[in-house]
Write a structure and sequence with these properties.
- The structure is a single chain.
- By secondary structure, the chain is α+β, with helices and mostly antiparallel strands.
- The strands form three sheets. Strands 1, 3, 5, 6, 8 and 10 form a six-stranded mixed β-sheet that branches. A five-stranded antiparallel β-sheet has the order 2-11-4-9-7, with no helix packed on it. A two-stranded antiparallel ribbon has the order 12-13.
- The longest helix has 23 residues.
- The two termini are 30 Å apart.
Length: 267
């Protein structure tokens, strides 16, 4: 009976420990209020418009322009970038492409998704997607792994026919992330995120001298969490508890009933 009570208590503790770990497997970014979402895009890395994950940003432009946005991504996240380009009623066949760069301006490969698509003549819109690799907390200097920091989105048309140069288009982008959790944990972390954003400091006409490129405050809602903690610690603790219970159970099953009553003491 004692062993049964111990086993029941351990099962309860196991359920409590698994609950937070299971919660970490849900998408990390909740939909943000689109009321204050950006309605324009930058034209270069230094003027990229900042957006939060889960936020839908829109912009108007012309075919042939480069449109840039930036967003934060932290360790353990697998960002998915989606873009929709709405085209005019009359246009030739156009190929649109979305690229994602990290804070060091290194182009990051897409695991899967329609990164480039051709809109046939007369098509009203084209949808693009890019699922990045999981962001790592630390990596070797020579590797090209995604690291915590600012990421840049570039949307443009490639091999555009001359007849379509400058025609008005509208774009919509959104970034969401899946939290991979301890499966992506590594033994190490960055002291600081990669280039924590560069934005154009705005000012009034009387403050022209204060305008310029500055480091922005863009970061995940809960701050940069790269460090020693991950849900691997939870599963390690669970493994230790199970190992202890197995030892106790094995001892309880093999120790027997003790000294028989017919055996005199000291024998």
């Amino acid at each position: 009976m004692r062993f049964t009570r111990v086993l029941g208590t351990a099962a309860l503790l196991l359920g409590l420990a698994v609950s937070p770990a299971a919660a970490d497997s849900s998408p990390s970014a909740s939909p943000a209020d689109d009321a204050g979402a950006p309605t324009e895009a930058g034209t270069a890395f230094r003027t990229a418009t900042e957006i939060e994950q889960g936020q839908r940003a829109t912009a108007n432009g012309s075919a042939g322009d480069y449109l840039y946005w930036s967003f934060p991504a932290d360790a353990g996240q697998r960002p998915t970038v989606k873009a929709t380009v709405r085209l005019p009623e009359t246009h030739a066949a156009e190929t649109w492409r979305i690229d994602v760069y990290d804070g060091l301006r290194r182009r990051q490969a897409c695991q899967y998704g329609a990164q480039s698509r051709t809109a046939a003549a007369g098509t009203s819109s084209v949808e693009l997607a890019c699922v990045l690799r999981t962001v790592r907390a630390w990596t070797e200097p020579w590797a090209d792994d995604p690291l915590p920091g600012t990421y840049y989105i570039r949307l443009t048309a490639v091999n555009l026919p001359t007849s379509d140069l400058g025609v008005p288009v509208s774009a919509e982008v959104r970034v969401d992330s899946e939290d991979i959790g301890g499966a992506a944990a590594v033994d190490g972390s960055l002291a600081e995120p990669l280039v924590p954003g560069v934005a154009m400091k705005s000012g009034s006409d009387e403050e022209d001298s204060d305008r310029g490129a500055v480091l922005s405050a863009i970061e995940p809602d809960d701050g940069w969490s790269s460090g020693w903690w991950s849900d691997r610690w939870v599963w390690t603790g669970i493994g230790g508890v199970l190992a202890a219970l197995a030892g106790i159970g094995g001892y309880a099953l093999t120790r027997g009933a003790g000294r028989p009553g017919r055996v005199p003491p000291g024998v």
